[in-house]
Amino acid sequence: MADLGSSDRERDARPITTGRVRRMIPLVGATGRTAGEAVAAALQRRLRGAEPDAAARQARAADRYVELLGRSRGVLMKAGQIMSFVAPGAPSSVESAAQRSIYQSAFQRLQADAPPMEPELAASVVEAELGAPVEASFAEFAPEPIAAASIGQVHRARLHDGREVAVKVQYPGVERAIRADLANVELLTTFLRLARTTLPSMTRLDIRTIAAEVAERITEELDYRREAAHQAEFARAYRGHPFIRVPDVIPELSADRVLTSEFVDGLRWAEAIEADRELRDRWGEAIFRFAFGSLRRLRLFNADPHPGNYLFHPDGAVSFVDFGSVSRFTAAQIAVIQRVVTATVAGDADELWQAFAEMGVLDAADAPTPAEMLGWYGHGLANLTAEQPFTHTPEFAADTLAQRYSPVGEWSRVARRLQLPPEYVFLTRIDLGIIAVLGELRATGHWEAIRKEWDEGGAPATPLGVLDAEFWTAGARP
């Protein structure tokens, strides 16, 4: 990231501001409009062949907006991260595709990096939370972070016993800033107006859902002790797994605003999507099995399929980090989810309608017909119903989002008449998020056969499936 000016560095070293007026300042453009409105207007201007520098201007505007988001921390930055990987909607023209590519490429920088706080400030948080000087807790503590995101940043460190660890440190004052953001309806509305322009396939209902989800998830992520408990639960379940890895938590060096866990090195997202196809296919299957296998086996869903939360390994394994938002389901809820998917794949419209009714999605007085429900939901499960093996693509991810939530089109009448209960909101978005991730990887796999392993007792469908089955059959954990 480009070096900041001295005045910028001094400003970033100060605690995060919390007043509504001061929190709005990063969004104010030179013309008096908010940066969100300015970027929205820029997005609406087409790239014309007669203006060869138009793309460069768009890119500069996107870069500036991402920088402003990075400085705002909290709610706005998290929303920007969501925009960087949720399917971007099917472009209506070459020009709009080019515009969207510029902005999405810029937003992707928020996935892995953000402007960090000063080393002295990070050290002071660690000392205050752990009740001892940094050198007493760690033999070595890198002053510069290896990653910085919306709520905290991660430092590499070494324990006195020689173990390498990653230390996540929460920004001081970020909790107050986030709660102020959540109370500031105008601030979030401005940003969501940009989201609608960037993702034109999203209905107003979907935007409200995303806003509510961002608010709930980001509030949960403020509690590092809660996150540590979630990560420890996943780490115990997957300890020794052949291709799914979750780093262990170091509980004695974790607190409300500090989370220390085993250090994992690996390829980042930008490198992974450029890897050979065979590796991308293995990584895609590992992500698919972790996400949906955990749901079935553990009744747990890691509710943040953010590409920055994956580290990729040359042997095809994937390490999963960041468990700030985890959804827990009951056995009855898992059973009905399995019914929905199985009925859709089988083309059983009546069974699908009944399963959705039991989920509380349908209003009996104004419910879509079973055929409408099957057409609407089945479109997004083409990765299971189409000829196998199936290759995920960004276009498939965009089309799935557009068909599932578009205010116009073949299934818009269905989408407008459904309301997901709160416990299923995460599930739906994570489903779409995983499809987006697999699309960017362009992962090919026997996804339906893998699904049958879980839902219908099928035999392992792939070499990774054999390893996975052996792991769960053995039962014992090192």
Keywords:
478 residues; alpha+beta; 2 domains; 5-stranded antiparallel beta sheet; 3-stranded mixed beta sheet; 24 helices; 12 strands; globular; disordered N terminus
What is shown here, in short?
By secondary structure, this protein is α+β, with helices and mostly antiparallel strands. It is 56% helix and 9% strand. It folds into 2 domains: 6-111 and 175-220, no CATH class; 236-248 and 265-478, no CATH class.
Radius of gyration: 23 Å
H/I helix tally: 24
Specify the helix fraction band.
Answer: 55-70%
Largest sheet: 5 strands, antiparallel
Number of domains: 2
- Average pLDDT over all residues: 76
The SS-based structural class is: alpha+beta
Can you offer a commentary on this structure?
The chain has 478 residues and is α+β, with helices and mostly antiparallel strands. The chain folds into two domains: 6-111 and 175-220, no CATH class; 236-248 and 265-478, no CATH class. It has 24 helices and twelve strands. It has helices spanning 6-13, 20-24, 35-44, 54-72, 74-85, 94-107, 109-112, 119-130, 134-137, 174-183, 185-198, 204-221, 224-238, 269-272, 277-297, 331-346, 349-359, 370-379, 382-385, 394-405, 412-416, 422-441, 447-455, 463-474, and strands spanning 140-141, 147-148, 152-158, 164-170, 244-245, 258-262, 300-302, 310-312, 318-320, 326-328, 390-391, 444-445. The strands form four sheets. Strands 1, 2, 3, 4 and 6 form a five-stranded antiparallel sheet that branches. It has a three-stranded mixed sheet with strand order 5-9-8, covered by helices on one side. Helix 15 runs parallel beside helix 23 (447-455) and helix 16 runs antiparallel to helix 17 (349-359). 41% of the residues are buried. Mean pLDDT is 76; it is low at 1-52, 85-99 and 197-205.
